[in-house]
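re: the backbone from monday

yeah here it is again, tokenized this time
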């Protein structure tokens, strides 16, 4: 089975995806980590970020492995390096490159074929898994997303104002919603869940219920009348 969760940055996707996968006994797939990994390798190998042919080669050849939250690139744990602000700032051209996306979507499908997955990203319900068993579009207002992000940064020792974070979020939203392929959008058959004012626990409860209802529905529909 595959549960596809899409939505903008800061809506809480990565936290709830992991918890939901745990509750369901599924594995989780963090597809943003894949775009981050290709960006990191491009920076380290001094590949120009507008050289889409070389970026596509990187995406095709990358040896990427996941073990829970740990991301191995070419056999090494690079979980911290893929999340630096520099990688986040420079990811746009990698995520916009059509050939890079093609290779990474193929990899996502290959991984998902190995078990039951909750997969999160921007294009999971629309491009990677249009036939997913359940699709969820997780969203939140810009202000709530910014407050969450500012709190996380504060915990990490960085003081930024909510207004500064809002301007970053607006840029990321614009980039995510306007890329040529795999742009962020709600799949027609996705259920939208807004996380404003909800605790993580509340959101995971809500998603668990949606998935269970959906599974029950699929089971009912598969019983053919005599
Ligand atoms: O989810 P996360 O913020 O780690 O994603 C990193 C970047 O990768 C984002 O800027 C997003 O635009 C891009 N991305 C993507 N398609 C996905 C997942 C992430 O373009 N399926």
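seq for it, each position gets an aa:
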């Amino acid at each position: 089975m595959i549960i596809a969760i899409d939505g903008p940055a800061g809506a809480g996707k990565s936290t709830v995806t992991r918890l939901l996968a745990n509750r369901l006994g599924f594995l989780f797939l963090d597809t943003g980590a894949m775009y981050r990994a290709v960006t990191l390798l491009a920076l380290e190998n001094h590949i120009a970020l507008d050289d889409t042919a070389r970026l596509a080669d990187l995406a095709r050849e990358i040896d990427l492995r996941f073990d829970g939250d740990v991301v191995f690139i070419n056999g090494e744990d690079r979980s911290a390096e893929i999340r630096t602000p520099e990688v986040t700032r420079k990811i746009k051209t990698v995520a916009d490159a059509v050939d890079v996306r093609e290779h990474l979507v193929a990899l996502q499908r290959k991984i998902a074929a190995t078990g039951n997955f909750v997969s999160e990203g921007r294009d999971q319900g629309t491009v990677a898994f249009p036939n997913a068993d359940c699709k969820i579009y997780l969203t939140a207002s810009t202000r709530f997303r910014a407050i969450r992000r500012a709190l996380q940064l504060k915990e990490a020792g960085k003081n930024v104002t909510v207004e500064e974070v809002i301007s970053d979020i607006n840029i990321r939203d614009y980039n995510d919603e306007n890329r040529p392929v795999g742009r962020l959008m709600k799949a027609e058959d996705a259920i939208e869940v807004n996380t404003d004012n909800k605790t993580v626990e509340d959101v995971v409860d809500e998603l668990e219920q949606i998935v269970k209802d959906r599974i029950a529905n699929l089971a009912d529909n598969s019983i053919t009348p005599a």
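Residues 200-222 form the longest helix (23 residues). Residues 1-26+116-212 form a domain with the Rossmann fold fold (CATH 3.40.50.300).
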